[in-house]
Every structure is written in structure tokens, then in C-alpha cells.
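Is zinc ion placement plausible here? Inputs below.
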Amino acid sequence: MEASQVGDIEELIIELIERVAGEIGLVIYSMGIKEEFTDEQIAEELKVEINEVRKALFSLYELGLAKYRRIKDDDTGWMEYHWRIEYEREREVLIKELQRTKEKLEEKLKIEDTSVYYICLNGCIKASYEESMEYGFICPKCGGNLEYLDSSKALEDIKREIEKIDKIIKSI
Ligand SMILES: [Zn+2]
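Reply from A.M.:
I modeled the complex. C-alpha cells:
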């Protein structure tokens, strides 16, 4: 694996964590704690609300990058969460996420590929061919002409994006 690709992967995982678990999630992940910890410990260390820490940790859990055990505190009767970040699953989670993105793009490609659109050049509407026929190819909002939308460039962009994801998946 080339150094530049490693950089890409790091960047992607950071992007993903920040998007799903927010800034706090990213900070927790970046702390690199290999042992178990409680949300109280992290809240204290970062000086943030425990609810925010918990929320971020559950987001990491949903992403597949954290797990927890619940232990009942005999003194207080409260449930304590003991967390562990699963750094070893990073690669797997990233691939899964990239594949999901790819599927969405392929879905979009299919829809775009078979549809013809007309748009108002003033940006009011985007209409199907049938709708545009009904409007007489005149924008119902501003009265401007509806013009055929050349989607070939958009399609090329999507295809390139898919190729890029394929390349990244192969390199991980
Ligand atoms: Zn218009």
C-alpha cells in the first residue's frame, strides 16, 4: 500500500467518524485508548457533559467501532457502561461504508440514466418530460422556457465517483 493511500484511508475514517459521531466522537476515537473505560471517565477528562459523551459513544457503537458492557453499580444501583473502542474493525467498517455509498450512487445512476428532465433556466423547477408536456414547456412559476437538461456530465461525475470508490476499496 502506498503512503498516499494510507493518508486517504485515515482521512476517510476521520470524515466518517466526524459525520456520524460528531466532534466529540472523533476526539474520543483519537484518544487511542486501548483498554475499557466508562463514559464518566471521558466526560471528566474532556470536561463535557456525560450525555454528549454517551451519545457520541453510541454513534460509534452503531458504526461498529465501539462496544460496551453494562455493569450494575451495587452502591448506587445505576447501570455503568464500560466501553471499548474497536480500532481493529476500522478497515471493515470503512469498506462497508464505502460499499453503501457506492450502492447509493449506482441507484442514482440508474434513475438518472433512464430519465429525461427539463429545467427552468431561472432555477424554479426540474420536471419530467411528461410534466413538461403538461406545462407546454413553459415554467408554471415564472413563465420562462423549460429547457432540456443534459445530464451526461452528471452521469459521468457519478461514474467517476464510483470508480474512485472501487479503487479505494481495493487499496484498503
Ligand atoms: Zn421558472
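Short version: The chain has two domains: 3-91, 99-171.
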